[in-house]
From TrEMBL:
This is Cobyric acid synthase. The gene is cobQ. Residues 4-229 form the CobQ/CobB/MinD/ParA nucleotide binding domain. Pathway: Cofactor biosynthesis; adenosylcobalamin biosynthesis. GO terms for biological process: cobalamin biosynthetic process. Keywords: Cobalamin biosynthesis, Glutamine amidotransferase. The active site is at C332 (nucleophile), H417. The lineage of its organism: Bacteria, Bacillati, Actinomycetota, Actinomycetes, Propionibacteriales. Residues 253-404 form the CobB/CobQ-like glutamine amidotransferase domain. PROSITE patterns: GATASE_COBBQ, GATASE_TYPE_1.
Length: 479
């Protein structure tokens, strides 16, 4: 089998997770495998080695497959800029805006690019593990679909439906999905997978037999509930899942502001993974004031979320923390807000400059050209690396250098996403925060690092799929 499409009966059924597990399990068997998602809608993205931007899920699936991530693995990335429009990233580069009314009618050229990218991967790899988007039963979108059954029909690959039984109604969702598709699409529904199962499998068996009898789809296997295994959501900010579960008296508290247009939410995952660090995502000014560290994360709409920051009263909290020398960290859009002035020459052409929070000595100008880079640097003798994804040009006029930005007192700003994933830098920065706030927190140097924990999760996910022989059932490649 040259490929398979992992489709879900609903969003968040486990398509990304199982696709990653399948990539890792196949790679362990010596199969050359690549991930693929024709279209991803997410503000969580990464920069590949070639400077292209793709969805974070596909970047991590490439890691699972043991191959270098590239733009062909996620040829179309839609980054929501508002409730009715998305910025289009095509083969890793900015390519205009898609309006809500164009979603079913204005995507023919996107489909062509997606199909060509899949052909590139299929020519170079033994198996391409494709991930669908949403549900193939969204028949209102079928005419313009190139991510679910439209892709399966175009490249002639079988489809496996993933159903999340923990939500309830899994059997009904499987049968309903099959029932809503036309005959040609149904013909490609090869199998189904039950995900997040807990309990006695014998109780489930009669229902599975009936689904197979009515639809003709094979039951490829059932994946049990995996307590400490997950995958980065496309937009969700659920840092609680990273917590180590160890309680310590010398804890450090981190408050992350939940902007309305928050993006690259995975930046703070590594903080939550650190033993003794308690991370809370909040819109409450009092919580922001009380934390040892306040983080202003990335945002897809800097000026919109800066205005919101003023409305919520959090901007006053930030200013007060600067005076009191209580640490504040701004990342990308959050960093831009901390400066003196922001001029938007992209979405608000001709509008006057907007005053920033005035806590860092820099001015920001948004330009059409987008910066995509994977920079490296150092801080206090520690190597630091990250990735940049932004339109804003930041002109710094003073302050103390900080990786990807600048520091004044206890206010830090950086344009680098992902810098906190580096274990040594993260622990050095948090140690500085603890010293500045009088906390007794110290890093647990024996605790596994962020990258090690992610690798462990990928391995255990692959093990779970191997234990039910899902890999062979889905792809035909035996161990």
């Amino acid at each position: 089998m040259r490929g398979i499409l992992m489709a879900g009966t609903c969003s968040d059924a486990g398509k990304s997770l199982l696709s990653a597990g399948l990539c890792r399990a196949l790679a362990r068997r010596g199969v050359r495998v690549a991930p693929f998602k024709a279209q991803n809608m997410s503000n969580n993205s990464m920069v590949c080695a070639d400077g292209s931007e793709i969805g974070r899920a596909q970047f991590l699936q490439a890691q699972a497959a043991g191959v270098e991530a590239e733009s062909a693995m996620n040829p179309v990335l839609l980054k929501p800029g508002s409730d009715r429009s998305s910025h289009v990233v095509l083969r890793g580069r900015p390519a205009g805006v898609l309006r809500a009314g164009e979603y079913t009618t204005g995507r023919a050229h996107l489909a062509e690019v997606a199909f060509a990218a899949h052909a590139e991967l299929a020519a170079r790899f033994d198996v391409v593990v494709c991930e669908g988007a949403g549900s193939p039963a969204e028949i209102n979108l079928r005419n313009g679909d190139y991510t679910n059954m439209g892709l399966a029909r175009a490249v002639d690959i079988p489809v496996a439906l993933v159903a999340d039984i923990d939500r309830g109604g899994a059997l009904a969702s499987l049968y309903g999905t099959w029932g809503l598709l036309d005959a040609a699409d149904r013909a490609l529904l090869d199998s189904y997978v039950i995900n997040k199962f807990r309990g006695d499998a014998n109780i489930l068996e009669p229902g599975l037999q009936e689904i197979t009898r009515r639809t003709g789809m094979r039951h490829a296997g059932t994946v049990g509930w995996l307590q400490d295994v997950w995958f980065d959501g496309e937009d969700a900010l659920e840092v609680g899942r990273w917590r180590t579960g160890h309680t310590r008296e010398d804890s450090l508290t981190v408050a992350v502001v939940r902007f309305p247009r928050i993006s690259n939410t995975t930046d703070v995952d590594a903080l939550a993974a650190e033993p003794g660090v308690h991370v809370v995502v909040t819109t409450d000014p009092d919580t922001c004031a009380a934390a040892d560290l306040l983080v202003l994360p990335g945002t897809r709409a800097t000026l919109h979320d800066l205005a919101w920051l003023h409305e919520r009263g959090i901007s006053q909290v930030v200013a007060r923390r600067a005076v009191e020398k209580r640490p504040v960290l701004g990342i990308c859009g959050g960093h831009q807000m901390l400066g003196e002035q922001i001029t938007d020459g992209v979405e608000l052409t001709g509008s006057p400059p907007t005053a920033g929070l005035g806590l860092l000595p820099h001015r920001v100008t948004f330009e059409e050209e987008k910066t995509l880079a994977r920079p490296q640097g150092s801080w206090e003798g520690v190597e630091v690396s990250g990735y940049e994804i932004h339109h804003g040009r930041v002109d710094v006029t003073g302050g103390e250098p900080f990786p990807g930005g600048v520091r004044v007192g206890e206010v830090f700003g950086t344009l680098w996403h992902g810098a906190l994933e580096g274990d040594v830098f993260r622990r050095r920065f948090l140690t500085h925060v603890a010293t500045a706030t009088g906390s007794r927190w110290l890093p647990d140097l024996d605790a596994p690092g962020y990258g090690a924990r992610r690798e462990d999760m990928l391995e255990r996910l692959a093990d779970a799929m191997e234990s039910t022989d899902l890999v062979t059932a889905l792809t035909g490649h035996s161990g």
